[in-house]
Amino acid sequence: MKQRIVTGIIGGAVFLTMVLLGGWMFALFISVLASVAMVELLKMKRIAPFSIMGIVSLLSMWLLLVPASWFEQLVPSHFTKVEIFIFVILVLLMFTVITKNTFTFDQVGFVVLSSVYVGFGFHFLIMTRDIPEYGLYLVFFVLLLIWTTDSGAYFVGRKWGRNKLWPDISPKKTIEGSVGGIVAAVIVGSIFYYFFPIFPSYITAIIVMIVASVFGQLGDLVESALKRHYSVKDSGNVLPGHGGILDRFDSLIYVMPILHLLQLI
């Protein structure tokens, strides 16, 4: 427990400092986190990061991760990142034929899904921080909602939890805890919005609170399902007492793309 607390304080202080700094330092820091998260996924799949498949996976993830402005400076071309990523997928599918299924369709699926999951998740975190004037507040707002949801779900579930939410994936989570987490997020989010009205209306803010809380919990379940599928307790051990980067950022990298795709940010 002591190790967990110390790691949480130090890790939280470093992350929040980078959020405050913003700019290229934050983007570079997030790029490092995303790379570690991708390596964690590769190891869960028992793929060496410096193997051909490991390197292709990392390159695919970086392609989706980097801001468009960076990409345009590094690779001046008429093609967008998404168009190049689609081309990479087609090349990978071609390799399943060339290698006579030594490189399988399932492996192609892993490269594509893991690249999208990690790459786009952290990409939209960088993009949110870069929003003029409100980027810093938006990141803190979503972080606050996720942390409040986790805490609310834990304490409500511990006291009143009776009905399991999804026992096959996460046996300890309950429906009562999940609802408690959403309510807690709305209460704390409303207080934050009162002092920092960063949305056009309170209705929009409420929608963001509920979406972030619900999908934050889903993001946690997605990562739990991944770990169960690959029979691992934690995604990694880079954070003593907390597991890996994916264990700590699973909700955030799931919520950020959802908020952007729904045009709530």
From TrEMBL:
<keyword id="KW-1133">Transmembrane helix</keyword>
<feature type="transmembrane region" description="Helical">
    <location>
        <begin position="134"/>
        <end position="156"/>
    </location>
</feature>
<dbReference type="InterPro" id="IPR000374">
    <property type="entry name" value="PC_trans"/>
</dbReference>
<keyword id="KW-1003">Cell membrane</keyword>
<comment type="similarity">
    <text>Belongs to the CDS family.</text>
</comment>
<feature type="transmembrane region" description="Helical">
    <location>
        <begin position="202"/>
        <end position="222"/>
    </location>
</feature>
<dbReference type="GO" id="GO:0016024">
    <property type="term" value="P:CDP-diacylglycerol biosynthetic process"/>
</dbReference>
<keyword id="KW-0444">Lipid biosynthesis</keyword>
<dbReference type="GO" id="GO:0004605">
    <property type="term" value="F:phosphatidate cytidylyltransferase activity"/>
</dbReference>
<dbReference type="Pfam" id="PF01148">
    <property type="entry name" value="CTP_transf_1"/>
</dbReference>
<feature type="transmembrane region" description="Helical">
    <location>
        <begin position="110"/>
        <end position="128"/>
    </location>
</feature>
<keyword id="KW-0594">Phospholipid biosynthesis</keyword>
<feature type="transmembrane region" description="Helical">
    <location>
        <begin position="6"/>
        <end position="35"/>
    </location>
</feature>
<keyword id="KW-1208">Phospholipid metabolism</keyword>
<protein>
    <recommendedName>
        <fullName>Phosphatidate cytidylyltransferase</fullName>
        <ecNumber>2.7.7.41</ecNumber>
    </recommendedName>
</protein>
<comment type="pathway">
    <text>Lipid metabolism.</text>
</comment>
<feature type="transmembrane region" description="Helical">
    <location>
        <begin position="47"/>
        <end position="70"/>
    </location>
</feature>
<keyword id="KW-0812">Transmembrane</keyword>
<keyword id="KW-0548">Nucleotidyltransferase</keyword>
<feature type="transmembrane region" description="Helical">
    <location>
        <begin position="177"/>
        <end position="196"/>
    </location>
</feature>
<keyword id="KW-0443">Lipid metabolism</keyword>
<comment type="pathway">
    <text>Phospholipid metabolism; CDP-diacylglycerol biosynthesis; CDP-diacylglycerol from sn-glycerol 3-phosphate: step 3/3.</text>
</comment>
<keyword id="KW-0808">Transferase</keyword>
<dbReference type="GO" id="GO:0005886">
    <property type="term" value="C:plasma membrane"/>
</dbReference>
<keyword id="KW-0472">Membrane</keyword>
<feature type="transmembrane region" description="Helical">
    <location>
        <begin position="82"/>
        <end position="98"/>
    </location>
</feature>
